[in-house]
């Protein structure tokens, strides 16, 4: 499981 | 991408367009805080460090480029443009950048998701964005007479923040592992800073009178 998702918000 | 997030991004974009329109067509930046604009330029420069390393979507990259380009060009207009810069209320816009930048940097060094340069800078940008509107609010309070475009600019920025909160609530319930305390708390603080302005903005709108803040 990836808790470190890419930051997709601006 | 949910509807709140998209609407939030669009109001954010509209706020920038309203501001550029004011500066570009009326050739005036009266009532706009250069301090706030410089802080926003710093916010975007430190937040979007990943622009060339992590590809998320074309939408994401284009929006980042727009926010970077617009924030730096607004600063350029206010500082360098020979007509626009004359309308800048320099004597009223006295807020010190460092009072906001230093605490945010210190806080980001201690509170962050991971102690790396990129993460600390990202966290710093979130904290700084939360308070970057303060010089603008102080300037509004001082000048009191607010023209329509400046009022709309601040209103759109506040709306963007409010919509982002709805977006987080939506994502929290629809996406697994969607927990971002740092983003949420700084975003909430940022939105609360607009509460007072919103109150007067809606009152003036409801009563159909010109927006004026109390002394």
UniProtKB/TrEMBL annotation, chain B:
BP terms from Gene Ontology: protein retention in ER lumen; protein transport; vesicle-mediated transport
Similarity remark: Belongs to the ERD2 family.
One term of GO molecular function: ER retention sequence binding
Membrane disposition: Multi-pass membrane protein
PROSITE patterns associated with the record: ER_LUMEN_RECEPTOR_1, ER_LUMEN_RECEPTOR_2
Organism field: Elaeis guineensis var. tenera (Oil palm)
One GO CC term on file: endoplasmic reticulum membrane
Record-annotated membrane-spanning stretches: 55-77, 98-115, 121-140, 152-170, 182-202
Record's keyword annotation contains Membrane: yes
Key words, A-Z: Endoplasmic reticulum, ER-Golgi transport, Membrane, Protein transport, Receptor, Transmembrane, Transmembrane helix, Transport
Official protein name in the record: ER lumen protein-retaining receptor
Domain of life: Eukaryota
Record's subcellular location: Endoplasmic reticulum membrane
InterPro entries: ER_ret_rcpt
């Amino acid at each position: 499981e990836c808790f470190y998702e890419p930051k997709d918000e601006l | 991408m949910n509807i709140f997030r998209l609407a939030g991004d669009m109001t954010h974009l509209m706020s920038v367009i309203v501001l550029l329109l004011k500066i570009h067509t009326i050739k005036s930046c009266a009532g706009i805080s250069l301090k706030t604009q410089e802080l926003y330029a710093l916010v975007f420069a430190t937040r979007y460090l990943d622009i060339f390393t992590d590809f998320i979507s074309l939408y994401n990259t284009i929006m980042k480029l727009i926010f970077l380009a617009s924030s730096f060009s607004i600063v350029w207009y206010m500082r360098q443009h020979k007509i626009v810069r004359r309308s800048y209320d320099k004597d009223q816009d006295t807020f010190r950048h460092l009072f906001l930048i230093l605490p945010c940097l210190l806080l980001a060094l201690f509170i962050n998701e991971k102690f790396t340069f990129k993460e600390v800078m990202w966290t710093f940008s979130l904290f700084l964005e939360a308070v970057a509107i303060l010089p603008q609010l102080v300037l509004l309070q001082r000048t009191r007479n607010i023209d329509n475009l400046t009022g709309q600019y601040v209103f759109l920025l506040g709306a963007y923040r409010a919509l982002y909160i709805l977006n987080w609530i939506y994502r929290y319930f629809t996406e697994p592992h969607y927990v971002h305390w740092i983003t949420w708390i700084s975003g909430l603080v940022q939105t609360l800073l607009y509460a007072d302005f919103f109150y007067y903005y809606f009152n003036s709108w409801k009563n159909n009178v010109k927006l004026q803040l109390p002394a």
